[in-house]
Amino acid sequence: MKIYTKTGDKGKTSLFGGTRVPKYHLRIDAYGTVDELNSYIGLIRDQKIDSHTTKILLKIQNELFTLGSMLATPPEKEILKSGKERLNIPKITEESIELLENEIDIMNESLPPMSNFILPGGHTTVSFCHITRCICRRAERITTLLSDESSVNPEILMYLNRLSDYLFVLARKLTIDNQAQEIPWIPEKIK
Hints:
Helix content is 56%, strand content 5%. It has helices spanning 26-45, 51-71, 94-109, 124-149, 154-177; strands at residues 12-14, 20-22, 118-119, 183-184.
């Protein structure tokens, strides 16, 4: 497969199904941010973390490729003239969301209760996780905006919302795994 096509040299690109749009199009921004999110999850996966978390993150990365493909397909191009779906791949479903919820619940069982907001940081791996959580929230905001303008599968928004929760709880777990310390946010008066 050739990497460069020269078809984007004038600031336009194709969505799944062939529709040409400017590269700043909201749909491109949505799945581009999901791609950025996926890359940062790869960065977390590359750290020294337990094998179960590595396995879950790999599953999430695969699901984010699916999610990106779903976002890259405009609603009017989802069904082919033959009546078949354009994307012949498993979609993001309630089961995908439930897996994230189950993982959150399992991690939460071993974490101390929260009584304050937590400042990001304490260990490089934890910081990568917080950055990834912020990118996930941005992907969710952009996709929410897209859903106001165009049809977006509701499971996509639910998945991104739950994934950011998962990443927050994972950051807390990784803090403990790396023997780092959570630093609570304590509002101080500005002098």
